[in-house]
Every structure is written in C-alpha cells, then in structure tokens.
C-alpha cells in the first residue's frame, strides 16, 4: 500500500448511507458508511444510487459519537500552504459535521440540549486555526526520523506510519484505523503551525520552512493543563522543525518545548497569576524519568533551558526541576537555568546573548541534520534543546528563534548559500521573512494554548523591544486573564471531547453537563456590572457640589473594590472550570 491518501473526494448522501468516492478514474473503490449500523465497508462506484445528494470534500477527519448518535466530520475547504519536496501541504479551513440520524425525534429536550452543547464543543475545536495535512507526505515526522526508516515503513499508509503524538484526529479515525483496506480514505491531521517561503540570498534560491507540531497527549489550555501525566507526557509539548532545501540538499534543526515535567498545577482563581502548586503526594520521579527516557530515545541528548523566574512564585518550580535533574543523574541530560525576566529587565534584550554564548558549544556538538543532493546523510542532529518557561510560549519562542537562527547560519554556509563571513542579520529581505515567521509561530502556539497571541513578538519581529509592543502585551495579558478565568473550562472540555479523553454515553442521564454553576459564579457579573454602573451614574448625575459627587463615586468605587477583594480571596468559586474530565485526571 502506497503512503498516499485520496486528495479529492465526492460525498454522496442517501437516507441509508454515506458514500465517499475518490475523484480518480483509475480507482473504483467507494467507502460506504451505514447510517444505521455504522458499519464501514468498501463498495464500487456503480453501487452509488443516482438519487444521492453529492458534494465535494477534501478529506475525512473522522467520526464521533454524541448523545444523538454518530457523526461524520469532513473537510470542506482547504488552503494551499506551499510545496514540500514536490508534496503539496494544505491547511484545513472549514469542516462539516453530518449526523448519521435523519431525525432527532428520539431525543428528550434535555438530550437535545446536551447534544447541542457537545456539538458546539466540537465546532469550537474545529474553529481553532492550525489544522494541516498532506495526502502524499508524512507531516508528523522530522526529516531525520524519515531518513532512518525501512522500505516496509515507506510502504505503510500515512495513518499507520504517523507519529501518534501529532495526529490530532487519531481518536476520530479509530474506526477506519481498524480496517487497513480503507486507510487511503483516512487522513492524519496535524495541529500546530506551518509556513513555507521561497527565499533568495546572493542570487541563490532556496526554500525555508518552519513546522510546529503540537502533541495531542496531555493537550489543553493554559491553567488547566500543566506539568505531566502518569505516562510522562508534558503539557503544551510542541516539536518545532526548521528546514532548508537548496539545490537538492536538505537540512533541518529540531527543538522542543513543554511544561516542566513533574506534577504541578496552577488552577485559575481570579488572581492575575495563581500560585503554582507542586504535588507533594505522588512519586514525582516516575513520571519525570518516563518523560526523559522517551525524549532521549526520540531525540538524543537533552539540554534543558529553563527560563522561569528564580524568585517569587516561580522559584520553587525552578528549584524542583533542577533538583530532579540532579537526582536522576542521567549523563544525557544537561540543565541550564536562565532567569529571562531578570536578565532582560529594563529592556536589555541584548543580554540574551549571554545564554546563546553559554550553549554555543553544546549547539555545535549537537549539530543539525543534513542530506546532500545525492540523498546521502551528511550529518545527524545528535541532541536537542528542550526549552520552557511557565507557559512555554513567549519567553520560550524568543529563545527558540535565536537558537534556530544560529543553526541556520551554519546550514546556509555549509550548503554555500551564504559566503564566508556573511551573516543572516545582514540579509535584510530574508531577515524580515525569518523574524515574521517566528513571530507568527509564537502567535499560533499562544492562541492554541492561552487563547491570545503571544507576548514579546515585537522583539521577534524587529529584534528590539518597543513601547508599542509593551502596550500590546498589556492588552493580550488582559484578554488572557478573562479567557483563562471565564471561558477556558469550556475550551478544555472541547479539547477533551475531541481527543477522546471523554466519551459521551448516549444513555447516561447523569452526564457532567448538568452540574449547576455555583450561585456566586452567576452573581459575579451582576454585582460587578451594578457597582460599575453606579459609578458612571454618579458621574452623569452630579450632585449639588463636587464634594457630594465625589462622595458617591468613592462609595461605589470602594464597593466595587471590596467585592473584588472578596472574590479574589475565594476566586476559585467564580471561574469557568472544566466539567467533562475529573480534576485528578487533569491536575
């Protein structure tokens, strides 16, 4: 079986079945899905009823069972991102969710409402920007992993050979996965960020590609998913690969980011920065060792770059991480702590060079992956930088972009794009492309995890910190605060449902959606709106004297502030918490 999937399909819908037909005259196979039994079979084109309603689709994302029964999710729109070694890479931009059931009359009013809520969760995930696929190329593996495979692996379907960490529709494709004969209809979809640019330096044209692959293990949103799970999967784990293709030669440099890999949490409670809590009950070393054992097998030697603050609430996390690395005693792991905020305080971002100089010898030792024009592997990347801050977003992306530039400098000189003594920073046109791409990568990763664009992207885009960038960071921080406290519970539930961490039981009348919100949660917006409104009314309806007006304003301002203090004191009662997965599973 060739490692390709069908590129364009015709979906034929009848009351009894879905028929999915490849738009390829050389293929007679048609996938048939029974809308009653949910059975999946192969049939032929002549079996498609002429009365079927037909539309064009670009892939099957998979199937999911909700309260009303099963649903088929298909890709209805796509956008071409570029070509990757003559393989077209697409972004899925629109989807459709089709019910197997022809009517909802079998549902009660409560079931109808529950089903509507679950559908809104699936639609929320599908509305997130960042789903990519190729029908002819395996996007889930790095160039180095793909170079070290057997002929048998090359003949596997894209679904069989994919790195399951990065197949975000793996749960949705479980029924098709069980039937190898239909794998060409199954399309593994990556979630993250991909950008491709055709560039020129010294009149030499090359392709520059940046790929970030977000893991679907321990996936979720900022404050509800931290640390690791019992299997050693880290929250917000992203593998980022930078690729250069010139005149037949291909080079890549891979980095990872992920939450500090031990058991800790940081539940929202209306405070701007909730205090992190380290789990003192569980055996921390088991999950910690599992994490790094798998990382070393996959990537080789590890250099941990921990960018968190070394004072305040972040200090215990840094100390715990350092202590656990020492206790593990693994010679393949090197730990480097760099207090990003302290070192770069007062806009002194030039001090990042201190860290780059500190790791320069290690980066030279690790090298990068390179295949020459004849297809021969010239060098392998022997180790990896695993960077983290608290969220593994803003600070982390800045450092990754600087490490990637240093590697790219060496690669472009090796393949003779840059002349001896030339530097990337001097190539104004390419430097602009490079900085904007890394800033776009930061924004994509941040929106998927924290709900807003990244902070500090003014430095990534321009190479310096600006006052406008500080203002934009302030706005994004405010939006993050709101989303993290008042909408992230729904976002976390949506991801858990999509990935199969929660399964809907059609006959379970005690599903967690029926848990009523605490009265204090419902009262919060009313209290705050009334208090704020009274302040405004006092200003508009001024008293006889300014003293009287000021007294009214101060009264309601203090009332608002007092209410806010009460909320902050016990803020966890007011946040939008997840309902579908129990607390111990996401702590």
TrEMBL record:
Alphabetical keyword list: Membrane, Transmembrane, Transmembrane helix
Superkingdom, taxonomy of origin: Eukaryota
Bilayer-spanning residue ranges: 521-543, 549-569
GO-annotated cellular components: AMPA glutamate receptor complex; endoplasmic reticulum membrane; endoplasmic reticulum-plasma membrane contact site; glutamatergic synapse; Golgi membrane
Record GO biological process: exocytic insertion of neurotransmitter receptor to postsynaptic membrane; phosphatidylinositol dephosphorylation; vesicle-mediated transport in synapse
GO molecular function: phosphatidylinositol-3-phosphate phosphatase activity; phosphatidylinositol-4-phosphate phosphatase activity
Record EC number: 3.1.3.64
SAC domain boundaries: 122-451
Protein's UniProt name: Phosphatidylinositol-3-phosphatase SAC1
